[in-house]
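Write out a record, fold above all:
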Amino acid sequence: MQKVSSLMEDYFSNRPRSKAPEGVIFENRNNDIPVVPKKKAWEHLERPDAMQRLFSFENAKELVFFLEDIIQMQEEMRHHGKMLVDGLEVLVQISTNVVSRVTDLDVEWAAKADVIYEDIKSARQQ
């Protein structure tokens, strides 16, 4: 009969384990899943070809203002992104589905989202 400790000897050894890079929300164990770093800039993903950014808010009121403004902007542009709300954070991903890649329209969309976010942040400081 073998002891569990002998089966897990490698696990309990003092050798260093790999760690996720600084600022990464989760470790990417499957290369098909994009790693979502906690940065304040838009990032370009390769699979799928898209741009994404994580927006953070101080309170639910700011979050709701942001979502309302983004939804209104999307309707005006007739170009829609994906949004995942998690607590007081919103992960936004944008690409042009028809061509399955990032286009100038996506870059414009991202710039407008940045303006909306900056407006909400500046209102906080007043």
